[in-house]
Specification:
The chain is of the alpha+beta class and 230 residues long. The chain has ten helices and seven strands. The structure holds adenosine-5'-triphosphate and magnesium ion. Adenosine-5'-triphosphate binds next to α6 and α8.
Length: 230
Amino acid sequence: MITHELKTPLVPIQEYADMLLSEHLGKLTKLQKERISIIKSSSESSSSMISDLLDAQKLELRQLTIKKSNENIKNTIEKAIRILKPASDKKNVKISSNEVDLLINHDSERITQVITNLIKNSLTAVEPDSGKIEVIVDSLPTEIKINVKDNGSGIPEGKQGNLFKKFYQVDASLTRERGGSGLGLAICKGIIEHHGGQISVHSVENQGSTFSFTISKESDEQVKSPLNSA
Ligand SMILES: Nc1ncnc2c1ncn2[C@@H]1O[C@H](COP(=O)(O)OP(=O)(O)OP(=O)(O)O)[C@@H](O)[C@H]1O
Ligand SMILES: [Mg+2]
């Protein structure tokens, strides 16, 4: 409840920041625009951190609902890449994908959230200009494997075991510089496990990381036994 209530006052902050930025209430100077943009992006960060806390809490209480439907996985991946386009452009980093067209029974919004979280982490790990991020779909006999691969800092082997735990960060001192709460990967794991899949990491320090997760190719109808569907 409290986590939910924390979001409510952020709504008018964001709406009024938008209204001011649109200059419907009067023309702004460059400096005023800049400062209001900071108000807007700070409240957006707060809001997304609170959403992460809410999701983590729901996962813990097993209350996270997954709304699956047969949708093209390509659209889900493209949505995530589109969301992060401004951030990747800012760093001059290219995000590519192998654009596999496949109907997969999944919660598109939640899987977009997973891919967005993984790409965000990769964007933090790569260098500007030389950074490269790829989203590669492997079509296996009974499942698909989605890999988010980067050529960033990599993760020391000894620290890889804790990555999917809540609030874990490899270098906590960086948190104060760049934000983040260490919930992203724990939420990814929860969402993937709610889909019946698995998430894993392969990473080499100073070379890069690949985070991979699976989703079954079977639709729920196929999984149901004939007795249940009668
Ligand atoms: N692609 C990656 N390359 C290098 N390190 C990574 C990568 N992905 C995750 N990590 C490390 O794993 C830690 C945990 O990631 P996680 O997404 O759970 O939290 P966060 O990104 O720090 O915060 P949040 O996602 O909640 O904003 C990160 O702090 C980072 O140290
Ligand atoms: Mg993260």
